[in-house]
């Protein structure tokens, strides 16, 4: 939500929160296995808070590497995903919506045709969070958005990042999936939209599926000498928004409700402001 501050002198300021996140990077060679590797996909299949890696092989066995949470990985050697092969594509996705990532593998490389594989994850007791983005200012799927989750896992404050993106050969779900281990809630859920809008939520319960809609953007055009001006509302086409006003940022009063018909709409306010400051905000219904 953006708040427009309209000063009596005519200066317009957009008030939005901001923060700085430091993200450590660890580069490590996972394995020196031989083979004709095709593609790979990252996913936290055991929901312990650390993303694991699945790699498909065109001529021999595929490989599943479990993230130990300390910068090292262990190759999984038991179970079907680690022993099947002759594959060329893979994708993580929670097809049964139980909070645990399942795995689809496309097979039949070259002349060795065979059925594809769908592995259902039997799950465990670890916590999780799934987030679906609905863009309004940005693209509808929120591609390019970054989602950061901070939660206490194994007694340590752990920051995880997911960026919504496409892919080739190894494209996974557009839903952001977070394994949360023994966390009882998410301390901070932060969404950074491609439009530049930032949302932040605190004390979010775990083991739930969230659909987050990008809030509208409210901007003010030039102020006239009599105090009248126009607002520019940018949001989703067909979405209904309520515009509210306040003189002190404490008490908000409904001003108008409208349906966005053209992504960016001009909203006039012909009445001159009578208070030293007048604030406006738009809220999706």
Overview of this protein structure:
This protein folds into 3 domains: 83 residues; 87 residues, Immunoglobulin-like; 68 residues, Immunoglobulin-like (Sandwich). It has a 5-stranded antiparallel beta sheet, with no helix packed on it. It is built from no helices and 22 strands. The N terminus is likely disordered. It has 285 residues and is mainly β. It is elongated.
The level 1 CATH classification of the largest domain is Mainly Beta
Fill in the CATH topology of the largest domain. Immunoglobulin-like
Beta-strand proportion: over 45%
Identify low-pLDDT runs. 1-29
- The share of residues in helices is under 10%
Number of helices: 0
The total number of structural domains is 3
Order of helices and strands: EEEEEEEEEEEEEEEEEEEEEE
Number of strands: 22
Specify the biggest β-sheet: 5 strands, antiparallel
Structural class: mainly beta
The CATH architecture name of the largest domain reads: Sandwich
The 3D shape can be described as elongated
């Amino acid at each position: 939500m953006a708040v427009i501050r309209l000063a009596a002198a005519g200066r317009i300021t957009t008030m939005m929160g901001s923060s700085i996140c430091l993200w450590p990077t660890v580069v490590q060679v996972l394995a020196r296995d031989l083979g004709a590797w095709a593609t790979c996909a990252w996913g936290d299949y055991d929901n312990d808070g650390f993303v694991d890696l699945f790699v498909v092989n065109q001529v021999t066995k595929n490989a599943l590497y479990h993230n130990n949470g300390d910068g090292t990985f262990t190759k999984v050697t038991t179970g079907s995903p680690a022993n099947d092969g002759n594959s060329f594509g893979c994708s993580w996705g929670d097809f049964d919506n139980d909070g645990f990532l399942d795995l689809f593998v496309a097979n039949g490389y070259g002349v060795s045709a065979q059925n594809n594989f769908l592995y259902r994850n039997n799950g465990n007791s670890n916590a999780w969070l799934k987030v679906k983005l609905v863009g309004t200012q940005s693209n509808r799927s929120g591609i390019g958005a970054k989602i950061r989750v901070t939660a206490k896992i194994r007694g340590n404050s752990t920051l995880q990042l997911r960026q919504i993106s496409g892919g080739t050969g190894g494209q996974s779900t557009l839903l952001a999936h977070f394994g949360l281990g023994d966390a009882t809630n998410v301390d901070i859920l932060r969404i950074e939209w491609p439009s530049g809008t930032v949302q932040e939520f605190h004390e979010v319960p775990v083991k739930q599926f969230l659909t987050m809609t990008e809030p509208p953007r409210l901007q003010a055009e030039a102020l006239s000498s009599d105090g009248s001006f126009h607002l520019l509302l940018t949001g989703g086409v067909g979405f209904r928004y309520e515009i509210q006003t306040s003189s002190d940022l404490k008490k908000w009063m409904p001003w108008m409700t409208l349906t966005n018909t053209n992504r960016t709409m001009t909203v006039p306010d012909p009445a001159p402001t009578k208070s030293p400051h007048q604030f406006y905000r738009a809220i999706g219904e």
